[in-house]
Design brief:
The protein is an alpha+beta fold and 419 residues long. The relative contact order is 0.14.
């Protein structure tokens, strides 16, 4: 059965807006709106030939890379007309079950299992994820301890900042109840500054905030699940993330599968992440019990601590599709025993990407563009590509050139120096 994909890069923005706010308040600035249009295209990486991806505008002929051959991109009106004309069933696959996604599913007359509307905001909130945000010591294997603190009052926040300021580097981060992808947060050390207080008070007026220590990342990994009933939920796989020192996502690392079919994708995660995967199953069950259905991503982290390494089992819970999930879908382009890096860069990296393309053939690295340089006649700002090689070291060098910074990962304690 073919699918209709509804990408929504601004998913969190919609579910964080209360029903009393106007539709006008949801309109992003022009620059952000164009970036959203570029990100929408990437949902096609998770589609199959014959599928439809609903986008804000329809790309012009010849603008999309070859990796999207066979995928149809069109606006909602065109998708509605096409599905009405073709009297056959379609599967609806939204980025997440936002109010917009529910409305579109109904308008297209598509029957599908949806999440309970109230469960979507809950599962994507810090109020939910804080229950599962535990850290374990990899040296002692002791039971997990709470990593941060959910705070509902200013005194609770001040106490959390005081406690975390006394640890390691003395830095902390405060996150809004709905906050993902290194957004909607403030970083600091010591006491709250006057400039930060206004942001904090505006957040606390709506919902609790989450306070946590800022730690040194060693590696991060995105775990992907499908949530159904307790007996039908499943783990799809894991992909380590490429992030910078501030936690910003720059891509994913795909480890080799044991076969070209990719059937072993769920078993290719490093054993360092196995405790987080098992912990993730508990989160999936809790989400299922709330009536949540659909894709769910969980981010976990290895971090440096006094005396060794700690594993943070779930620092983000995303009740939606994620870039890590799209990365897993790219496995079908990997030959057996090959590594891959899905790299997120910008148009500023055009020269670095061009140099990497010229050098890749002699380095034994294949590079596949996964985003257009032109969209609807306009130059784009986002550059993404899939770099593939049987040799991790060569792949690492090419990916570093594309991204213009070091790659931390894939994590292997036996070969990671002081890690």
């Amino acid at each position: 059965m073919p699918s209709i994909h509804f990408p929504q890069p601004n998913f969190e923005d919609e579910i964080s807006i209360s029903g009393s706010e106007t539709e006008q308040a949801r309109l992003p600035p022009v620059k952000i709106a164009r970036l959203i249009e570029e990100l929408e295209i990437l949902s096609g990486l998770g589609a199959q030939p014959g599928d439809i991806v609903v986008t804000s505008d329809q790309p012009s002929t010849g603008e999309l890379p070859a990796i999207y051959n066979g995928i149809q991109f069109m606006n909602l009106r065109a998708a509605s007309e096409l599905t009405s004309a073709q009297k056959r069933p379609w599967r609806f696959e939204p980025w997440g079950w936002s109010p917009s996604a529910l409305k579109i599913a109904r308008s297209l007359g598509l029957e599908c299992e949806t999440a309970r509307p109230d469960s979507v905001r809950t599962v994507n909130s810090r109020q939910f994820s804080s229950q599962f945000d535990l850290a374990v010591d990899l040296e002692t294997q002791a039971d997990g301890m709470p990593f941060g603190s959910l705070c509902r009052t200013l005194p609770e926040v001040i106490e959390g900042l005081r406690r975390y300021s006394q640890r390691d580097n003395g830095r902390w981060v405060i996150k809004a109840d709905i906050s993902h992808a290194a957004r909607n947060r403030i970083l600091g050390s010591g006491d709250l500054q006057k400039s930060q207080l206004q942001w904090f008070e505006s957040q606390l007026a709506q919902a609790p905030v989450y306070v946590e220590p800022w730690v040194e990342r060693v590696a991060e990994c995105g775990l992907q699940f499908d949530v159904g009933g307790r007996s039908t939920s499943s783990f799809l796989g894991a992909a380590e993330m490429i992030t910078d020192s501030q936690g910003q996502y720059h891509g994913s690392i795909l480890r080799p599968c044991e076969s070209e079919t990719g059937k072993s994708a769920s078993t290719t995660a490093s054993h360092w992440w196995k405790p987080a995967i098992e912990h993730g199953r508990k989160i999936v069950d809790a989400a299922s019990d709330l009536g949540f259905r659909g894709p769910l991503g969980i981010d976990c982290m290895l971090f440096r601590k006094a005396g060794g390494l700690g594993l943070r089992l779930a620092h983000d819970v995303n009740g939606r599709r994620t870039m890590g999930r799209l990365a897993l879908s790219l496995r079908r382009h990997l030959p057996a025993d090959h590594w891959a890096c899905w790299c997120f860069a910008s148009a500023k990296s055009e020269q670095s990407i061009s140099e990497a393309l010229r050098e890749s053939s002699t380095a034994g690295v294949q590079i596949m563009p996964t985003s257009p340089t032109q969209l609807c006649g306009r130059a784009t700002t986002l550059r993404t590509c899939l770099a593939i090689s049987a040799d991790w070291q060569r792949l690492n060098q090419v990916a570093q050139k594309i991204l213009s910074h070091d790659i931390r990962g894939p994590f292997d304690r036996d070969t990671s120096g002081t890690h």
